[in-house]
Amino acid sequence: MTALMQADVVVVGGGPAGLAAAVALGRSRRSVVVVDAGQPRNAPAAGAHNLLGQEGVPPLELLARGRAEAAAYGVRIVTGQTTGASGALGEFTIDVDHGATHVLARRVVLATGLVDDLPIVPGVEQAWGRGVLHCPFCHGWEVRDQRIAVLGRNENALHQVLPFRQLSDDVTLFLHDAPEPTDEQWEQLAALRVRVVTPRVERLVVDGAQVRAVEIEGGQAFETDAVVVAPRFVARTAVFEALGGEPTSTPFGVQIAADPRGTTAVPGVWVAGNAGDLMAMVVASAASGVMVGAAVHGDLALADLAQAVRVRREPC
Ligand SMILES: Cc1cc2nc3c(=O)[nH]c(=O)nc-3n(C[C@H](O)[C@H](O)[C@H](O)COP(=O)(O)OP(=O)(O)OC[C@H]3O[C@@H](n4cnc5c(N)ncnc54)[C@H](O)[C@@H]3O)c2cc1C
């Protein structure tokens, strides 16, 4: 049997962006349902950093606090996957877990986050978020002064090297899929005292989520403590597409295009967090959630006003 829920706003995705939007809306006495599959992007990490006032908080603990805060303002949270979406402005239907629940809502906030498309090298996925990292701001401090290997993926390899060279004197660039450096780049790498290894990487030698070494074609192994990779960032766009939206390609991946207040090209549908901004960290994602929550509330307030005037004008 299908459970039916009704709300002013359905928020798809209960990470930092979705929960922040839900809190902003709940505090304005909007009825809100959050549908969340419970797979936030930073789940593998031990702690979330650059989070003022909550530095290093475990990611799942942060979201548990966020859910409790949202619930305190009457937000209903459904654990499940949005598996379908239909309708238009004022009358959307969100399907959860293939018909287990239907949420009817006037507006939709997409806070579905993104998937990190990782280089296909054995060991990368196993150690992702611990010994294998991508973001110097998220976990660079934790690997300072360690032996850091950068796994090149494209022409941006030198840009991956720079922030980590600031954190450690022991950085090796494995070109792997990156193009041969130009003469100028060879000089820059030499000036930074960054070793360059040109044969392709065969695998990472891992122990649980810790990296022990990088092994190249031919079997030579280079001991290392951390490996930096460049994921391709692919926003989860299935719900947006079901509602008629088209994803946008960028040099870094795929996202949902929106204006600075999160308004998408589909009337009644907003986007917050990584789904609309591939570079947004936790605070920026939560901030965009608050902005979107405020924007959706304003939009609903204008719709409610128009409706009130219509009712007042109707002859008794
Ligand atoms: C390994 C790693 C470590 C990181 N560390 C840091 C850090 O230290 N500091 C920092 O600021 N940033 C960090 N980040 C970035 C951080 O993860 C993102 O900024 C943040 O998660 C974005 O929040 P979000 O709400 O947009 O998406 P997410 O946190 O990914 O949340 C999206 C939620 O939506 C749900 N969802 C998706 N599709 C559906 C659907 N169809 N139906 C229902 N639910 C759905 C997902 O299951 C998930 O729960 C890190 C990223 C990675 C990969």
Give an overview in words.
- With about 325 residues, the protein is α/β, with parallel strands linked by helices.
- It has two domains: about 5-115 and about 230-315, FAD/NAD(P)-binding domain, CATH 3.50.50.60; about 120-230, FAD/NAD(P)-binding domain (3-Layer(bba) Sandwich).
- The protein has eight helices and 19 strands.
- A hairpin with a 2-residue loop joins strand 12 (about 200-205) and strand 13.
- It is elongated, with a radius of gyration of 23 Å.
- It starts with a strand and ends with a helix.
- Flavin-adenine dinucleotide binds near residues 44 and 50.
Which topology of the largest domain does CATH recognise?
Answer: FAD/NAD(P)-binding domain
From the spread of the alpha carbons, the general shape counts as elongated
Return the CATH architecture of the largest domain: 3-Layer(bba) Sandwich
Contiguous helical run count: 8
Distinct compounds present: flavin-adenine dinucleotide
Helix fraction, binned, reads 25-40%
CATH level 1 class label of the largest domain: Alpha Beta
Low confidence ranges: none
Number of strands: 19
CATH homologous superfamily label of the largest domain:
FAD/NAD(P)-binding domain
Listing every helix as H and every strand as E from the N terminus to the C terminus, the arrangement reads EHEHEEEEEHEHEHEHEEEEEEHEEEH
| Structural class by helix and strand composition | alpha/beta
User: Biggest β-sheet, characterized?
Assistant: 7 strands, mixed
Q: In what range is the share of β-strand residues? A: 25-35%
Let me know the average pLDDT: 97
Termini gap? 41 Å
Radius of gyration: 23 Å
Provide the number of structural domains: 2
